[in-house]
Amino acid sequence: MAGLAADGLNPDVGLLYDINGLAKDAPTWLDRTMELVGEYGTMVAMVLVVLWCWWSVRRRGTTEESVSAVAGLVWAPLAAGIALLINIPIRGFVERPRPFVDHEGLEVLVAGKTDYSFVSDHSTLAMAIAAALFVAHRRFGLAAFGLAVVAGFCRVYMGVHYPSDVIGGFALGTAVALLLAPLALALLTPLVSAIAASRHLGRLVRSKRAAAGSSLRAETLGVPEPRVEDQDENGLAA
Length: 238
Known about the structure:
mainly alpha
């Protein structure tokens, strides 16, 4: 197979050896760092980006913008879960072994991977969250896209996935997040709006300070406040 890669007959395998070959020449501390980043780090960072986005959108913009953005944030983990469920029959149908099973000379940084390789769960999960987050907030979505690319690169670097496994995961995650987004948001937006109007849960969508600022601007401009913001002003949505 290495010969095929060298001849360029299998660019997927050739790129696998090129990227994974970096691990052979890297110091041990770098390999351990890539292992941690590829297994856990990017996912933890993705969660932090989602939380940061939530904290930001509930404090800025109008109430309608906060409701729309929070609905998109709720959709992000749901999209990731749906994408992972769809990947279960795909893996069973394709039955592609891990690259280190069929190819010698790979530097495998994580042992014990016995399931099938196509498509990559990590890549699917990361890109589904990134695509859904992009729908909610473009700036934070772009940051999540960057993390997803890092996650995919690490999986190949670690020797546990082919590049095409990662690309397939990206495609699956993006397709689920974007194609189902209109239906998901149509269902989630009324729910989030109801939460925004709740006395006890409203602050999950709209901070008290942001609501007070919106009310003050409405009074200054002589514009009647929307109902949800009236409730915020009275402390129903903190």
